[in-house]
Design brief:
single chain, 408 residues, alpha+beta, Dna Ligase, domain 1, 15 helices
């Protein structure tokens, strides 16, 4: 069955929300960043982009491009609130809404066409509602699958509406760089370039056996991507959907080399991960520790135990065990912890007194912090940590369910 898929991408979302909230920022070069000095650009307004400022750029680089740049610290609660309301607008037109990130989503409107007239009519109606209610613009791509719809939404920005009909797919992809396709990152693009493959047309016609030998099972998918073929359905995020991991990471205000200082950050992250896991009734056997060095080299190490855990102290112990086996080659600028291999569990009443006491204490602390905010009550060893996160909203954010990472 032919599908009609939309990809809706909010334009410079964080910066646009800030400009709507503060009229003095409108028409000015604005960047939204995390709270600390070591943050990078999260979003640049289109006025800032004319100076060459891009997402991921360091602050000093951005100010070198535009000395009059206005920096605004991220207001994650505002972005999450607006995003959730925009998602509700999408659901007025179809129940098949897949939240891809806080500022973009896929919609399958195949079953809505007869009700609303056409795909372009739906797109225009959504754009008009978002503009009227929030003063924001979005770019919409329409195609027969998710791969092409996302490609289409990026062809006209800002405030664009692009449709890629089936008969034009081959022509559009013929000379398109492979890096323009979602799912082909810099590393894969570089490996393909080494094979003489730089365009989607070349990728779609490359010998399948060669790509399978080099890329494994991904080789066949790459060829299909080069031809504009994508069978993935739009998958609405549901509260009961299985989730593989729960994690948090933190960019530090200064690089750390001391294991004791790193350990304090691990304790805080373990509490954040444990609280979220307990909130949704999941446990995991594997704890993953991610470190990023000062030169941005990033790596992860894992430890798998015999019993599933969700208690913060158990997560912390596993993370410290991993850290103790590492020889740090450089100062550390980012630390992350995740609990993986999750399973939903129904708690049984503990048999032993010490286990019951720990469970009761944990439940009480969770209730206080849920009501009054993260780290209202905390371990004494965390009082002088001083790190409360970078203020950067997690890519895992979703409007509800376990993927709803609590924003600050």
């Amino acid at each position: 069955m032919n599908r009609t898929i939309m990809h809706i991408d909010m334009n410079a979302f964080f910066a646009a929300v800030e400009q709507q909230a503060d009229p003095a920022l409108r028409g000015k070069p604005v960047v939204v960043t995390g709270r600390d000095k070591r943050t990078v650009i999260l979003t640049a307004s289109y006025e800032a982009r004319t100076f060459g400022i891009k997402t991921g750029m360091r602050l000093d680089q951005a100010f070198a491009c535009c000395p009059d740049l206005i920096r605004v610290a991220a207001n994650n609660r505002a972005y999450a609130d607006v995003s959730a309301k925009i998602i509700d607008i999408f659901k007025d037109y179809t129940s098949d809404v897949e939240v891809f990130s806080i500022d973009e989503a896929f919609l399958d409107v195949t079953g809505s066409l007869t009700l609303f007239g056409s795909d372009e009519a739906i797109a225009q109606a959504i754009k008009a509602q978002i503009k009227k209610r929030f003063g924001l613009t979005c770019s919409v791509g329409i195609a027969e699958n998710k791969l092409l719809a996302k490609l289409a939404s990026g062809l006209q920005k800002p405030d664009g509406l692009t449709r890629i009909p089936p008969e034009r797919v081959t022509t559009i992809l013929h000379d398109l760089p492979v890096s323009a396709l979602c799912g082909i990152g810099p590393s894969t693009a570089a490996r393909l370039q080494g094979l003489g493959v730089t365009t989607c047309g070349q990728l779609g016609n490359y010998p399948p056996k060669v790509l399978k030998r080099i890329f494994g099972v991904m080789g066949e998918r790459l060829i299909l991507m080069g031809r504009g073929i994508d069978s993935r359905p739009v998958q609405p995020t549901r509260n009961d959907e299985p989730v593989k991991s729960v994690g948090h990471s933190m960019t530090l205000r200064q690089d750390l080399t001391d294991s004791a200082a790193i350990g304090k950050v691990l304790l805080q992250l373990s509490e954040m991960v444990g609280r979220r896991a307990r909130r949704y009734g999941v446990k995991g056997r594997t704890v993953s520790l991610t470190l990023r060095y000062a030169d941005f080299h990033t790596f992860s190490r894992r430890r798998t135990g015999t019993d599933p855990i969700s208690h913060s102290s158990d997560i912390y112990s596993a993370a410290m065990s991993i850290l103790s086996q590492l020889i740090l080659e450089q100062p550390v600028r980012l630390i992350g912890i995740s609990l993986e291999g999750l399973q939903y569990s129904s708690e049984q009443y503990p048999l032993f007194d010490d286990v019951r006491q720990r469970q009761s204490l944990t439940d009480a602390l969770d209730q206080v912090n849920d009501r009054f905010g993260e780290f209202t009550v905390m371990a004494g060893s965390l009082l002088d940590v001083g790190e409360k996160g970078s203020g950067v909203i997690s890519p895992a954010w979703r409007p509800d369910g376990i993927r709803n990472v609590k924003v600050r």
